[in-house]
Amino acid sequence: MGEPNTSSLHCDSNIERMVSMEVHKVVPPPHKSTLHKLKSRLKETFFSDDPLRQFKGQSAKRKWMLGAQYLFPILEWGPHYSFHLLKSDVVSGLTIASLAIPQGISYAKLANLPPIVGLYSSFVPPLLYAVLGSSRDLAVGPVSIASLIMGSMLRQEVSPVLNPMLFLTLAFTATFFAGLFQASLGILRLGFIIDFLSKATLTGFMAGAAVIVSLQQLKSLLGITHFTKQMGLVPVLSSVFHQTNEWSWQTILMGVSFLLVLLIARHVSIRKPKLFWVSAGAPLMSVILSTALVFAFKAQHHGISVIGKLEGGLNPPSWNMLHFGGSHLGLVLRTGLITGIISLTEGIAVGRTFAALKNYKVDGNKEMIAIGLMNIVGSSTSCYVTTGAFSRSAVNNNAGAKTAVSNIVMSITIMVTLLFLMPLFRYTPNVVLGAIIVTAVVGLIDIPTAYHIWKVDKFDFLVMLCAFFGVVFIGVQEGLAIAVGISLFRILMQVTRPKTALLGNLPGSDIYRNLEHYKEATSVPGFLILSIEAPINFANTTYLNERIMRWIEEVESEDDAKNHQSIQYVVLDLSAVNAVDTSGVTLFKELKRSLDVKGAELVLVNPVGEVMEKLLRADTGHDIMSPERLYLTVGEAVASLQSAMKAPTSNHV
């Protein structure tokens, strides 16, 4: 006699153990009215953070106070403010002001706006954010990417050179719509919309935009007068090398010198965070030194272009410039929408980053409202799109900012500059502003994050590359649209092609796992056990029906080849199926009919609340949800059905 088959003995022992297993009854979920379910769904969708819980059990006076603090966070920390905190905030406010002044002028030029608008945008919005914002570290002002997008989009239809007043009008109107969109997202609690910009999309988009911004600065760094209006890599480089006769060695020498100084200062601060003031003060010192050199050597007469005269004084009102009609309405709506989304995403991401570092919470909806309102008000006070900038906020954090008062200190410093110091910038060379912009956007190219995305998810890495190359070679808007489109396509693929797995038993247990993942798992003769790992709806029912029937055909062909017992039970583990619609219910009915023809039975395992409720409601004939075909776990289902297994039919004599 041959030795006994160990796998057969092991399978028999498993069967004996499972047959004796206690089977738990599957009970339907508690009844809830349609109104109650709708209320719960809306609450989880729009009020997942349950903002009203703090009002429970409070007196009327306390509720009014909490409501005011919710709308105006400054009322929460303001009463406890101290001189000790003020000292830290003054230092950090003055530090970020030294960075905000040159950056404000530079980013306004990047947006094709008068340089003074950049300083206006660093004065009013930070004051509003200090009252409405919930982040202690966010430093508010113009940012490079939003400036680039606004300038490039508006320039498609209106020339900032030939029609500067119309261009300025459109910029303020686009800022109004950006703020309106941002505030609406916060008020209506629709912040999840910005989540469609994934980490991979933003990483690629920011890196591509940084390259485009840097390329645009070649005009200033080389002293070129006639420069292309296009944004892509090829037309920019083509323009640069076709205009070599306009290159100015004086401009190149000054530009390279200050760019090296700024990059070295940035490197020093990265390597030694305690020396944050080196990179924070370097831009302003570069502006002061370069302005002094130009003035001393009359360099404006030797090929170095300068800003020119800037009007002093505080922000003039601009509500009369907002234009809500005419042929350019579509343009300002698109520009406002895109710049609003990008700036909002950046501001909230920066705020949450520093909140996590300091272990406090930033309310995303409050931030949307705060950023939106400061842009709405800003559009009426000669400001363009502003948000929280990472570079400025990092300096603010490193300088020891304790509260949003640092933004107020920065605004006061900008106010003094606007009132008394504007004539000093008359001889500031454009080449230094270009060097400041390049230094600022270099930090947007995040190589470590890109490498991390490559290691974790190759598809996300592909999305990141599409965003990067789309921005660099096609355009800012097109690159962003391509990346978002690919991300949405991936989501659609996950919805329409959900994962299904063939399960097997882990030896010595009643646990069932994916046969491809756990090599030691074994299939159970006469059973096809499948796990569906996604909601079942109209978008994937056809695929699931075809995939399950294909599983059956594949397993049956293997069983015939090995002379194994044919399939008598198809067990569907529904633990990961959290939702089903009417098409999904129909799927189960079609599977039941198909299996009846094959002489097999459909068994369901652990249908969760909503799924079970809909199946019970639709199964009037008790064909699908009969108690003998409904189990809590796969182990219990197999154990109970083993004893009822039909004897295998054999075609062999």
TrEMBL record:
Residue stretches making up the STAS domain: 517-641
UniProt subcellular location: Membrane
An example Gene Ontology molecular-function term: secondary active sulfate transmembrane transporter activity
Gene Ontology CC annotations of this record: membrane
TM helices/strands, residue ranges: 166-188, 200-218, 247-268, 275-297, 331-357, 369-391, 403-425, 432-454, 461-489
Keyword Transport on entry: yes
Record membrane topology: Multi-pass membrane protein
Alphabetically ordered keywords of this record: Membrane, Transmembrane, Transmembrane helix, Transport
Chief location bin: membrane
Protein known as: STAS domain-containing protein
